[in-house]
Write a structure and sequence with these properties.
The chain is 80% helix and 0% strand. By secondary structure, it is mainly α. It folds into 2 domains: 118 residues, no CATH class; 158 residues, no CATH class. The chain is globular. The protein starts with a helix and ends with a helix.
Length: 324
């Protein structure tokens, strides 16, 4: 907790001077955890290892031989899954805390090397032929059970991504905007997929079944729904339907952000809503003049003030709950 937050709490009479002194003393003497730094280094290490393997294969493909490369990747993949299975904790519907962070990242490495193996086999031997849907549904079938069994949100994200690929949807905004324009089926598939992810989030939250997966599902759902709606607004040009849909999404996710005290969902809701509103404003000839400059200045100021006020409210509520 920083000095600004303490000043706000004191000024609003939420904490007494004695409580402030205790908090300041605690903040000054508390231990510093390296857990996040170590986890970040492990995650970076997994990515660099996969990049390094790809580089070695690319530079020595004719020297090493395809069979040796395939065998090496397969052995590494099998080892990662075996190690994760051997060091797993008993399955639980609640969040599982592993004693060692290495287990999580070895499982993630195994999933990534499996994708490398599958892609290499398809590229070199064309084992799936033109059945690209089969190539994407196989890792989906593996990743989703693995995510729940080993309680791994990173693997769950991989499963959602491969499932989106199977549906013909790419969650990347750049891909959708560059390649999805004019392809209405991708827009509607994205909306359906986003609704499915919202349903999965609702199930995990209300049935208390891996409740901590809720954020991962909603994160993908929110971005896919907003991107699909914005693309529909621009491409299909059914302004009433898609702008109304965006308004509904903004209201729902802002309500969720307030209920859960999530500044992240508030931010993306406001940004996507602002993009949609700005696009419609730019379609009006009256604003395509000097007035457009005033529009962006005024709306930018309103957004900044809104975010600052909500951030203060969010911080105060978090501290109040913790104090109780």
């Amino acid at each position: 907790m920083n000095e600004f937050e303490l000043n706000e709490l004191s000024r609003n009479k939420i904490i007494s001077d004695e409580q402030r002194r205790i908090i300041e003393d605690f903040e000054a003497k508390k231990s510093f955890s390296l857990r996040q730094e170590i986890k970040s280094m492990l995650y970076l290490g997994v990515l660099l290892l996969n990049i390094g393997l790809g580089r070695i294969i690319y530079e020595n493909i004719h020297t090493i031989g395809h069979h040796v490369i395939i065998t090496g990747i397969a052995v590494l993949t099998i080892f990662c899954f075996w190690y994760s299975f051997k060091n797993r904790k008993p399955f639980s519907l609640q969040e599982i805390k592993n004693d060692s962070p290495f287990t999580d990242y070895i499982l993630l490495l195994g999933c990534l090397t499996f994708l490398v193996l599958e892609g290499y086999l398809q590229y070199q031997y064309n084992i799936f032929g033109q059945r690209y849907g089969l190539a994407t549904i196989i890792p989906t079938i593996i990743f989703f059970p693995a995510a729940y069994y080993f309680d791994h949100r990173g693997v769950l994200s991989l499963g959602i991504t491969t499932f989106a690929s199977w549906l013909g949807v790419t969650v990347s905004p750049i891909y959708l905007l560059q390649n999805g324009l004019g392809q209405n089926n991708l827009i509607y598939a994205g909306l359906v997929f986003g609704i499915l992810l919202c349903a999965a989030a609702y199930f995990t939250e209300n049935q208390n079944f891996k409740k901590h997966f809720n954020f991962t599902y909603l994160n993908f759902a929110a971005n896919i729904l907003f991107i699909s709606s914005l693309t529909g607004l621009i491409v299909i040009k059914n302004y009433f339907v898609f702008f109304l849909l965006i308004i509904v999404l903004v209201v729902l996710f802002i309500k969720y952000a307030i209920d859960k005290q999530s500044f992240y969902f508030l931010t993306i809701s406001m940004i996507y809503g602002y993009w949609a509103l700005s696009y419609l404003v730019l379609q009006i000839e009256f604003f395509q003049s000097m007035f457009i400059l005033y529009y962006f200045i005024i709306t930018s100021i309103v957004l900044i003030v809104f975010f600052i006020k909500f951030k203060k409210r969010l911080d105060v509520k978090k501290v109040t709950v913790n104090q109780i």
